[in-house]
């Protein structure tokens, strides 16, 4: 890795938690300089603008989330247990490998839906990838007989996504973790019913 690539990576690693916590609009240049210890010129010498830093930070947070989820899925034996990974994460007390600030998909989607088309597109692509992964798991479960043959894989995947993201949003907005846990338990029962 070149010195410039190392500097870019350093900036992203230091600013990603801020963007994921404060959002695009809430993250200032002074937040970025304070987190990195670099000057404005150093940051903008490596990135064209705040948008580029935000996009790279989202990608970093998403990769961190995906890596964590993939590692947890690999530990699961059954298809239903693999599908339940996202519901069990909520019960964890903020795993070290999980991005600071929580789910980057939910955090970024709610802010960027009308204000930042490039971030919105990244979130949309990530959601499609998550749906496609769940569809493949469900199809595998149908083929192996673990999941009912009458299950519509795409509908089930979308339902699971909505339940998980909804649980996170409701728990964080109300500051009642018990609400999220309750929804995640219902999500696990839904997976068992497939």
Automatic annotation (TrEMBL):
InterPro entries: Homeodomain-like_sf, HTH_TetR, Tet_transcr_reg_TetR-rel_C_sf, TetR_C
Keywords: DNA-binding, Transcription, Transcription regulation
Keyword DNA-binding: yes
HTH tetR-type domain residues: 5-65
Ranges of the DNA-binding region feature: 28-47
Molecular function via GO: DNA binding
Domain of life of the native organism: Bacteria
Protein name (record): Transcriptional regulator, TetR family
Organism, scientific name: Chitinophaga pinensis (strain ATCC 43595 / DSM 2588 / LMG 13176 / NBRC 15968 / NCIMB 11800 / UQM 2034)
Organism classification: Bacteria, Pseudomonadati, Bacteroidota, Chitinophagia, Chitinophagales
